[in-house]
Design brief:
Length: 65
């Protein structure tokens, strides 16, 4: 799973999908999360789907701003 966050990496079997791509999307997301001191997690089940969770340490804004 971790390799999917590397640039130009795609899933195991590209023959099973019609979607194309450069393999940059998850690596860009991972880099942005890292820059914001957050994290990105991927949970995938074959035949069911994939869940990607992004967690960022945000502060609440004061009311009225």
């Amino acid at each position: 799973k971790r390799r999917l966050f590397r640039p130009f990496t795609q899933g195991d079997d590209q023959r099973l999908t019609r979607a194309g791509g450069t393999g940059l999307g998850l690596s860009i997301c991972a880099r942005l999360c890292n820059l914001m001191r957050g994290r990105i997690e991927l949970d995938s089940t074959l035949g069911v789907g994939t869940r990607i969770t992004v967690t960022l340490p945000l502060q609440a804004c004061a009311t009225g701003t």
